[in-house]
Design goal:
With about 240 residues, the chain is α/β, with parallel strands linked by helices. It has one domain: Rossmann fold (3-Layer(aba) Sandwich). It is about 30% helix and about 20% strand. The protein has helices at about 10-15, 50-55, 65-70, 85-95, 150-160, 165-175, 190-200, 210-225, and strands at about 5-10, 25-30, 75-80, 100-105, 120-130, 145-150, 180-185, 205. It binds S-adenosylmethionine (SAM). S-adenosylmethionine (SAM) binds next to helix 1. The site of S-adenosylmethionine (SAM) has 21 residues, from helix 1.
Length: about 240
């Protein structure tokens, strides 16, 4: 079993082989979205930000879901996804008889995409759990929607084009795990889930394939561990 409370610079398909089956309490992933960014249709959108998204727009290998299901003690997973991924993910987990929730993150200042489209102001977070998996949290953490800006400041500070709001990730953690539980994020990006786990006294394992993002996540983790008085004390069982 891999050492916990670390992020690894690995392709998750390789990294997941090193994790014991039935060992993970909660998975939070934000895999590459399946986006249809069309340079010709939206020449104005093709600024630096959109160019960075090119690397992250091709979706992910759905085979990872079969592996994640084996690694979790019970299915308990949040998946950030684009509209085009919703159907595949719903089909996959409903066949497994899971309960589900469709959560949303609404952005107050989306890019002004006009033409023949609605604004890109909503992201989807699908939550699936086996029957019997408990939900904790409170009135605030359990809202199905979250409203914020597009977190431009985080994007600049942590140099990741699709960084997610730490507070929202912390809500998922509070709602769906207990102190000392083991959380996995195998598409860690700048490490938001892993920082959330540290702040909420959970254990974690992260994988990030891109060396540059991995270094950013590693640094954020070290800072969060310092701020929280060292590594997490509670062990997973
Ligand atoms: C949408 S971003 C995650 C952003 C993250 N939630 C955050 O707040 O910073 C997806 C990340 O998955 C990484 N990735 C893509 N394929 C991967 C793979 N096979 N194994 C591990 N990481 C991968 C990308 O490099 C990218 O940083």
């Amino acid at each position: 079993m891999l050492k916990t409370n670390e992020v690894y610079n690995m392709d998750c398909m390789e990294g997941l082989k090193l994790i014991d089956d039935n060992s993970i309490d909660l998975v939070i992933i934000d895999p590459p979205y399946l986006l249809s960014i069309n340079k010709l249709k939206h020449p104005n959108l093709f600024n630096n930000y959109a160019n960075e998204l090119i690397n992250l727009k091709d979706g992910f290998d759905m085979k990872v879901l079969d592996i994640l299901v084996k690694k979790m003690k019970k299915i308990n997973i949040y998946i950030y996804c684009s509209k085009r991924q919703v159907q595949g993910l719903m089909d996959y987990f409903i066949k497994k008889n899971c309960n589900y929730e469709i959560l949303t993150w609404h952005k107050l200042n989306p890019s002004p995409l006009i033409n023949n489209n609605y604004l890109p102001d909503t992201e989807y977070i699908l939550f699936f759990r086996d029957k019997g998996v408990k939900l904790y949290g409170n009135y605030h953490t359990k809202k199905k929607y979250y409203i914020s800006g597009t977190n431009k400041l985080d994007k600049i500070k942590y140099k990741h084009p699709t960084i997610k709001p730490l507070q929202l990730i912390e809500y998922h953690i509070e709602n769906s795990s207990k102190e000392g539980d083991l959380i996995l994020d195998c598409f860690a990006g700048s490490g938001t889930t892993l920082v959330g786990a540290i702040n909420k006294k959970r254990n974690f394992i992260g994988f990030e394939i891109n060396k540059e993002y991995y270094e950013i996540a590693k640094k954020r983790i070290e800072e969060a561990k310092m701020l929280n008085g060292g590594a997490n004390e509670k062990s997973s069982n």
